[in-house]
Design brief:
alpha/beta; TIM Barrel; eight-stranded parallel beta barrel; 12 helices; 11 strands; 45% helix; globular
């Protein structure tokens, strides 16, 4: 690994735990219509996220260019390049690795949806991003999700599907893999152990309580994964900064959800 890429990855995984605790605000196209309340005032939401001091924030290029300036250099950021939905009603690339260089990002993210007729297209796009990022030593993070098809298209949380997705991303040559947690510590632990690049968990669907989200993240840590990236369970929380701090206590310190929530409120 060249030093440029190592420097950028070290910024993301800078905590002594060796794990990544990041926040994602790159969800706008996934909802079809309207913008969720937690993302409407994006500048205000970013300010609250940065107050909690996560290890990184993932966003699209327009948000980085228009709203990230006050926080530039204070927290690493990851440039998301994909806009897509599980049913393929949207599947486009809106940024390239050179954009990540110009914007000062520490990594370039690309999304891939696995299973189904478009699986190959997603993997080809990811491979092209890896090739394009190489001259700049820009790390590529693949956000890879297996799908299941029925009356509607949904994300699969089956261990065998997630294992397949992780292997697909690994074969392409990405530097970090973000994928859903399969709700099984032992199974996810095997997936993590068998992958020679860092695997981090996606934060998952919105939970009814913050404690439920933290309990899932506690299992992610127990599996040996290298951290997690959380979206709506942070930016949709009543107090975003406290939610970030609580997540950090679980991911970096190995605290229980109850203890993490107690300390986050006191912090």
């Amino acid at each position: 690994m060249n030093i440029g890429k190592q420097v950028r990855l070290n910024r993301l995984f800078s905590h002594s735990s060796g794990r990544l605790c990041s926040v994602a605000v790159d969800h706008f196209i996934n909802y079809g219509q309207g913008v969720p309340a937690g993302l409407a005032d994006i500048a205000g939401t970013l300010a609250q996220i940065v107050e909690g001091k996560p290890d990184a924030v993932t966003m699209h290029r327009g948000i980085a260019a228009s709203a990230w300036g006050p926080f530039a250099g204070r927290v690493p950021f990851i440039l998301q390049s994909s806009i897509c939905r599980p049913d393929d009603s949207c599947m486009e690339q809106i940024a390239e690795p050179l954009d990540a260089v110009r914007l000062g990002a520490d990594a370039f993210a690309v999304a891939a949806l696995i299973r189904g007729a478009t699986e190959g297209k997603y993997l080809k796009v990811t491979a092209e991003c890896v090739k394009a990022a190489a001259p700049y030593d820009m790390p590529v993070i693949c956000h890879i999700y297996p799908r299941k098809f029925g009356k509607s298209v949904e994300i699969s949380f089956a261990p065998e599907d997630i294992a397949w997705a992780v292997r697909c991303a690994l074969e392409i040559g990405v530097d970090v893999i973000k994928t859903p947690y399969c709700n099984d510590v032992k199974a996810f632990g095997q997936i993590v152990r068998e992958c020679p690049v860092p695997v981090v968990a996606a934060g998952g669907p919105k939970t009814e309580t913050m404690e439920q989200s933290l309990a899932m993240l506690q299992d992610v840590v127990r599996s040996g994964a290298r951290g997690a990236t959380i979206g709506r369970n942070i930016w949709a929380a009543p107090n975003v900064a406290k939610a970030v701090r609580a997540v950090k206590y679980v991911i970096h310190e190995g605290m229980s959800p109850k203890e993490a929530l107690r300390l986050a409120k006191a912090g």
